[in-house]
Structure formats: structure tokens, C-alpha cells
Specification:
single chain; 222 residues; 10 helices; globular; binds zinc ion
């Protein structure tokens, strides 16, 4: 084992050379300013790297990640990232991205204790409890993925309800909130039809997105 992690510095050097040879002056241009169109709120899981899976270069996506892509109204970390993204960078899209087989969601579903994160995952359990009548009817194999999708929709609604997003809409700033789910098995993103760009339509879109999950997982009842 190399304590200095030489292998990472070497691969970093190769990566920077590759980008610079493909696009001379790339890093110098980024130095001047970043102007990403997108903000990503995703899970910390190492299998879901934000930029890579949508094939975006540095400078194109503003990213916040935590366990199970949760958006809590009093989380100053997430709110600060969102506020900077909206007010300073003027991103046009905030995308909440969950993923199939999420460990945090699985733990929430099973009431499994894993440590400090139990307190964080409690928010996903709140989502589980809100939809428990539907979830008990879903085949056990698919229940984690159903809750992953419900969690994305609920967290996207939380994004819509933050003062930061509400204020942006109030002053007429162009901003859309999205809810997506990434499939670990095929590397593909799925749109959960939770796209909100107008506060007046949030409730109706939320209800339709929930109905979409119920329809997708219907027929899988035990
Ligand atoms: Zn996860």
C-alpha cells in the first residue's frame, strides 16, 4: 500500500493531460469562472458519480451529495450549496437523483441500525411511514427500489419548498426541479416525472409522480 497514494496523483496527471490535449486551454478558461446549468443532489454512494454518468466536464455541474440524497429544511450544508447555485451561479435545473439498491434506503426500510447515520436516515423512514400502505403491498424484492423512487419525489418536493427556491420563483427566475432515479444494473437514468418549474403546479405534479410509482410497482404485490 502506498501511503502517499501515488497512484491517484499519477492518474490525476494523466487525466489533466488528456483533457488539456483534447481541449487546449481548458483549465485556464475554467479558472476565470464556473457557469454550470445544473445542480445535482445525489447519494454519496461511490457507484453514482454525478458528472461521470451524464458525461459532463468539470465546470458543468454543481454537486451536493449525502447519504440517500436527502433534503432537510434545516440542513445548512445543503441549503448553502443550493443558495449559491441559484443566487450566484443561476443554475437552471436542480436534480434530485436517487439510485436503485440504495444502502441508506434499504437500512431505513428494514429499521437496520448502522450508526450515526440512523439519525439521518430517519428522514427516509418518515417517507416510508408516509407511504407504508402502498409499500406493504409491493413485492419484498422490489420494495427498496419503490422506496428509492418515493424518496426522490419527496426530497424533490422539499427542494421546491425551500425559501431559496420559492424566492427564486417569486422573482421570476427560470428554475426547474427534477426527480430522477439511476439504475445500478444498467447505468441508466430514469425520469420520475417530478419536474416542477412553477410553485402553483408542485402539488399536482407531486401527486402524479406518486401515482406513477404506484403504477410501476403495481402487479408486484405479494
Ligand atoms: Zn445510496
Amino acid at each position: 500500500m502506498s501511503l502517499e497514494l501515488h497512484e491517484l496523483f499519477e492518474s490525476n496527471r494523466r487525466w489533466a493531460e488528456r483533457i488539456e490535449s483534447r481541449e487546449p486551454g481548458f483549465f485556464t478558461r475554467l479558472l476565470a469562472q464556473q457557469s454550470p446549468q445544473y445542480m445535482w443532489i445525489g447519494c454519496a454512494d461511490s457507484r453514482v458519480p454525478a458528472n461521470e454518468l451524464v458525461d459532463l466536464a468539470p465546470g458543468e455541474m454543481f454537486v451536493h451529495r449525502n447519504v440517500a440524497n436527502v433534503v432537510v429544511h434545516s440542513d445548512l450544508n445543503c441549503l448553502s450549496v443550493m443558495q449559491f447555485a441559484i443566487d450566484v451561479l443561476a443554475v437552471k435545473h436542480i436534480i434530485v437523483v436517487g439510485h436503485s439498491g440504495c444502502g441508506g434506503v434499504r437500512a431505513a426500510l428494514a429499521d437496520r441500525r448502522i450508526g450515526i447515520a440512523d439519525n439521518w436516515i430517519r428522514h427516509v423512514q418518515d417517507v416510508r411511514n408516509r407511504h407504508i400502505d402502498f409499500l406493504v403491498g409491493v413485492d419484498a424484492e422490489r420494495r427498496v427500489d419503490a422506496l428509492c423512487e418515493l424518496n426522490v419525489i419527496e426530497q424533490a418536493l422539499n427542494v421546491c419548498q425551500t425559501t431559496v427556491v420559492q424566492d427564486a420563483w417569486l422573482r421570476g427566475q427560470e428554475l426547474a426541479v427534477h426527480g430522477w432515479c439511476y439504475g445500478l444494473a444498467d447505468g441508466l437514468l430514469r425520469d420520475l416525472a417530478m419536474t416542477v418549474s412553477d410553485p402553483l403546479q408542485a402539488a399536482a405534479i407531486y401527486e402524479r409522480a406518486l401515482a406513477g410509482v404506484r403504477a410501476r410497482y403495481a402487479g408486484a404485490t405479494a
